[in-house]
């Protein structure tokens, strides 16, 4: 417990509103199919890194939804957002959840499947 006069350091406050991730570029051009495979693999293995399965499911639903629905999902699941683009979140028990950008948005160098 902290002192009555103590306060959190700037940057430690949870984020209330989420935002779309900033544009990013993959190390090499990838196809939509490759991106889908990367996402599927991440979501299939994510619960094995710790945290609660229902929080991972809520994060997946939020990552795949539009920003308004994503905000509602995050709020209703009690997820604490540390970075507004959802790359770092916590559950109410303090477990940390890190999401790679590729599950949140497409890279700028995405190519169409041939």
From TrEMBL:
Pfam families: UBD
Family annotation (Gene3D superfamilies): Ub domain-containing protein, DC-UbP/UBTD2, N-terminal domain
Annotated DC-UbP/UBTD2 N-terminal domain residues: 16-113
Region Disordered, annotated ranges: 1-31
Superkingdom in the source lineage: Eukaryota
InterPro entries found in the cross-reference section: DC-UbP/UBTD2_N, DC-UbP/UBTD2_N_sf, UBTD1/2
Cited PANTHER family: UBIQUITIN DOMAIN CONTAINING 1 PROTEIN-RELATED (PTHR13609)
Identification of the protein by name: DC-UbP/UBTD2 N-terminal domain-containing protein
